[in-house]
Design brief:
45% strand, 62 residues, two-stranded antiparallel sheet, mainly beta
Length: 62
């Protein structure tokens, strides 16, 4: 299962860690996803949903 919001499609972003000497190494910025029981197409599912979708009321909790 990918680390992606089932509602809006928000997923990880990539970037760099930058040290004091300005050396760069790759890193991930993880989306704030929560494992939530939701009602989807009349059935209950456990899905990853981002907190902005939960706050906006785009899902119906089971």
């Amino acid at each position: 299962m990918s680390h992606k919001c089932i509602i809006c499609g928000k997923k990880d972003m990539t970037g760099n860690n930058v040290s004091h000497s300005h050396r760069k190494t790759k890193r991930k910025f993880r989306a704030n996803l929560q494992n939530v029981r939701i009602i989807l197409d009349g059935a209950r599912h456990k899905e990853l949903v981002c907190t902005s979708c939960i706050k906006a009321g785009k899902i119906q909790k089971a």
